[in-house]
């Protein structure tokens, strides 16, 4: 393993751990938190505008559709980040059950599903302009993403099938952990093993490593990733607060 890959792995691990820790703090923040929310809006706006306007390399196959890198990929980053936070809440729930942890895990999963659907939609749009089809059923990464979202969709159905709140929360926490464990091979392992994905880096498509370090695109890409991750936490915070208010109202 080269030094660059080792450094990249360390940075990725630090980003993941910091994201989970920071995500919890932002989601559970009781103060208005206007500073980081304003930063989120600025990053999303800057990433979107710059992603549409900056010059991009004209690579074979992807051509101008490469701009979707600033939208599609950050959505998946944010989905995984908020789902990891939800898994952490589920683990905490199994150690020390509470309604608060159950609600936070549930709302984080819902945010992850929303971002996953957006990721599939932007991916389908990208496929239309790159491969000439909205969906390529032979592509394992597309199918893996769809199956992963179906697994999480089953999580929502499962929660609705229990009347006992404690039983629902416990089963949901266990299912959430296994759902995330199943999503990792579906999205990362199987597509690499199959070797026939139309996604960049396989079967003739230029890999992202050919342009994700471009001096023009890299700052915009990182800006978009941070913006979308913060947006995922913001969305989870709002939905969690609404759910807590609903619980308090029902208790009166």
Describe the protein's architecture and organization:
With 252 residues, the chain is mostly helical. Helix content is 74%, strand content 0%. The chain has helices spanning 3-27, 34-53, 72-95, 99-130, 140-160, 165-194, 217-251. Helix 3 (72-95) packs across helix 7. The model has no long low-confidence stretch (mean pLDDT 86).
- Give the CA-based shape: globular
Strand content: under 5%
- SSE pattern: HHHHHHH
Tally of separate helices:
7
Number of strand segments: 0
pLDDT below 50 for ≥5 consecutive residues: which ranges?
none
Structural class given helices, strands, pairing?
Answer: mainly alpha
User: CA-to-CA gap between the ends?
Assistant: 60 Å
Proportion of residues in helical segments: over 70%
List keywords for this structure.
252 residues; mainly alpha; 7 helices
Write a short abstract of this structure.
This protein has seven helices and no strands.
Q: Which SSEs are present, and which pair or pack?
A:
Blueprint: H1 3-27, H2 34-53, H3 72-95, H4 99-130, H5 140-160, H6 165-194, H7 217-251
Helix pairs in contact: 1-3, 1-7, 2-7, 3-4, 3-6, 3-7, 4-5, 4-6, 4-7, 5-6
């Amino acid at each position: 393993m080269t030094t660059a890959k080792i450094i990249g792995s360390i940075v990725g691990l630090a980003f993941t751990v910091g994201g989970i820790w920071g995500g919890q703090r932002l989601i559970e923040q009781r103060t208005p938190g206007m500073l980081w929310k304003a930063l989120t809006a600025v990053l999303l706006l800057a990433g979107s505008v710059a992603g549409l306007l900056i010059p991009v390399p004209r690579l074979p196959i992807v051509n101008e559709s490469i701009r979707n890198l600033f939208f599609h990929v950050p959505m998946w980053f944010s989905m995984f980040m908020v789902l990891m936070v939800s898994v952490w809440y589920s683990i905490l729930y199994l150690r020390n059950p509470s309604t608060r942890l159950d609600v936070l895990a549930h709302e984080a999963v819902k945010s992850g599903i929303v971002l996953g659907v957006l990721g599939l939609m932007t991916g389908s749009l990208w496929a239309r302009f790159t491969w000439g089809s909205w969906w390529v059923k032979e592509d394992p990464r597309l199918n893996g993403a769809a199956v992963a979202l179906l697994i999480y969709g089953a999580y929502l159905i499962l929660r609705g099938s229990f009347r006992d709140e404690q039983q629902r929360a416990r089963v949901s926490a266990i299912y959430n952990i296994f759902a995330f464990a199943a999503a990792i091979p579906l999205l990362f392992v199987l597509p690499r093993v199959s070797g026939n994905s139309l996604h960049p880096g396989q079967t003739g498509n230029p890999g992202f490593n050919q342009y994700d370090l471009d001096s023009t695109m890299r700052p915009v890409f990182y800006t978009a990733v941070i913006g979308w991750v913060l947006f995922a936490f913001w969305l989870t915070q709002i939905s969690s607060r609404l759910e807590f208010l609903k619980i308090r109202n029902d208790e009166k």
